[in-house]
Design brief:
single chain, alpha/beta, six-stranded parallel sheet, six-stranded mixed sheet, 8 helices, 14 strands
Length: 337
């Protein structure tokens, strides 16, 4: 049995993480829910028990075997090293440690062996990156990739609880007949009934931080530092489920039939691909599941070595909480914790 702490236990990802630890029967001995000072006094439910939330401080990690960070990057930057020094293995969901060369960035189905080189902190990738590499790995095993082009359509839950509430409020206002652009604070423009051609913040090269993370993280996880990955990330009025339109180019021609077979065999991937019957993955299909759904598999019309894919995954589950729990499960399996 493992003593487990969850930092950010009161947030959307933290809530999902607790539910998955329970549902997947992870060997939790003692559970310690932690959060920032403003959440102290809240309670979480785990295995039928009401457990009070404590403030996360360096001292709270004593005796913990595993510490999940499902909180802000600043809290992770401040406290993850303290948890590791206390002897725990940290699994962090923020972007803080992802590109640190000393920290493994892991999707267990794709690069589990990277866990062996951890030095106390393991990073879980961006929710959009996870769905992408889950589909890329079995295809790259068929033939090395030479280029990846991605356009994402990302759900508001990827931004957080406030974004979900903003979409709900704008939708109600629109139904009630309000005209003009609806009030907004989380996003710079109205999200309801709209598509925003950005995610996170713009950088000097006019790409957003989300786009640059997707590119860099994909290369690191796949172990392909020179792979050309180019992308546009958008935000859409969907509550849960990130969708991605992806063009993959290979060293040799990979047929759609080969791709479907390889994807079908890969753990955690489900092929949903019968377009003439309007069978393809949508965000609604992915919500509440742990599988990465792949469909619309077809040859590129301009490059015989290119394939188009449509990828959808639940950004709160496999994109966040499930991947973190799977990392913990793999650590136990590999006797690394």
């Amino acid at each position: 049995m493992k003593n487990v702490a969850v930092v950010g236990a009161t947030g959307a990802v933290g809530h999902e993480l607790l539910a998955l630890l329970e549902a997947r029967n992870f060997p939790v001995g003692r559970l310690l829910p932690l959060a920032s000072a403003r959440s102290v006094g809240s309670v979480v439910t785990f295995r039928g028990e009401q457990i009070p939330v404590q403030e996360a401080t360096p001292e709270t990690f004593a005796g913990m075997d595993l510490v999940f960070f499902a909180a802000t990057g600043s809290l992770s930057r401040e406290l993850a090293p303290a948890a590791a020094r206390a002897g725990a293995v940290v699994i962090d969901k923020s972007s803080t440690w992802r590109m640190d060369p000393e920290v493994p960035l892991v999707v267990p189905e794709v690069n589990p062996e990277d866990l062996r080189r951890h030095k106390g902190i393991i990073s879980s990738p961006n929710c959009t990156t996870i769905g992408l590499v889950m589909a890329l790995k079995p295809l790259h095993d068929l033939s090395p990739m030479t280029r990846v082009i991605v356009t994402t359509m990302q759900a508001v839950s990827g931004t957080g609880k406030e974004a979900i509430e903003e979409l709900e409020a704008q939708t109600r206002a629109w139904v009630e007949g309000h005209e003009g652009e609806l009030p907004h604070t989380v996003y710079k423009r109205q999200i309801a009934f709209n598509v925003l051609p950005y995610a996170e913040t713009f950088t000097d090269n006019l790409y957003t931080t989300e786009e640059l993370k997707l590119s860099a993280e994909t290369r690191k996880i796949m172990g392909l530092p020179n792979l050309p990955v180019t992308m546009t990330c958008t935000r859409v009025p969907v509550f849960v489920g990130h969708s991605e339109s992806v063009l993959v180019e290979f060293e040799r021609k990979v047929t759609p039939a080969e791709a479907r077979e390889a994807l079908s065999r890969f753990p955690g991937v489900k092929v949903v691909d019968d377009p003439f019957q309007f069978v393809f993955p949508t965000a609604i299909d992915a919500a509440g599941t742990d599988d990465t759904l792949v469909g619309r598999i077809r040859e590129d019309l301009t490059n015989e070595k290119g394939l188009w894919l449509w990828i959808v995954s639940d950004n709160l589950r496999k994109g966040a909480a499930t991947n973190a729990v799977q990392i913990a499960e793999k650590l136990v399996e590999m006797q690394l914790v």
